[in-house]
Amino acid sequence: VCSTGYCQEAAYDEAIKARIVEIVKVEGKVFYKMTSDLYWLPASVGLKLSEGDMIKTGKDENSYAELLVIEAKDDGLRGILKLASATQAVVGVYNQDINEIKLDRGEISCIIENQNKNSSFEVRTPTALCGSRGTDFKVTYNPTTTASCFKNKIYMQQLNSQGKPQGSRFTLRQ
User: Fold this and answer.
1) How would you label 16-45 residue by residue, b for 16+ Cβ within 10 Å and e otherwise?
2) I need a labelling partner for 66 at 20 to 30 A (CA). Which of 55, 82, 110, 144 fits?
3) What is the predicted pLDDT for the residue at 62?
4) pLDDT digits (tens, 9 = 90+) for 90-130
5) Other CB atoms closer than 10 Å to residue 93's CB: what's the count?
6) Cα of 28 vs its chain's centroid, Å
7) Hey, how many other C-beta atoms are within 10 angstroms of the C-beta on 50?
8) What is the reported pLDDT for 25?
């Protein structure tokens, strides 16, 4: 029995360590900034990103990055995220069962596989939350959110000005 929040915190830390977000492809201008860094640095293949780290791609149409996302637990998430040109995103973990990337601007294409029924993957923009348990979809934010689903279905929910869900979730099918 834990009388402090330490046990929960330790479990959360272990859950985060079980997630891997690695840059697997870089074309053109791609930069990253770790939570402790002051400046953007050139990104390279093999770089691992953690919760709170940022990645952005250059404005020229040839700039993009691909990220491999893996959850090390049984039936965990596996996916590829492609950040198009002129995109900026923040790697995040909302809680132990929700894997999240925050899209500040631009476009992310997601191919998500092997989600178990107790977890999901979400793309959060300033205006909406888009998520799935395993599908191919794309989310664009500039300055409104649009989403396309290419396989199975995704859910979407509007966010208020404080970033909190409002209204009902709705499903977007292929």
Assistant:
1) eeebbbebeebeebbbbbeeeeeeeeebee
2) 144
3) 95
4) 998 655 666 889 999 999 999 988 666 767 789 999 999 99
5) 18
6) 21
7) 15
8) 96
Model pTM score: 0.84
**Hunting for tokens 């990055």 — which residue is that?**
65
Six-digit token pair at 75? 């039936």
DSSP percent split of the chain into helix, strand, coil, nearest 5: 5, 55, 35
Please give the C-alpha separations between residue 9 and each of 51, 52, 80, 97, 105, in angstroms, as whole numbers: 15, 17, 28, 15, 31
Q: Which residues of the chain have pLDDT under 50?
A: 1-16
Sorted by sequence, the CB contacts under 8 Å of residue 123 that are 6+ apart come out as 100, 101, 102, 103, 108, 110, 129, 130, 131, 139
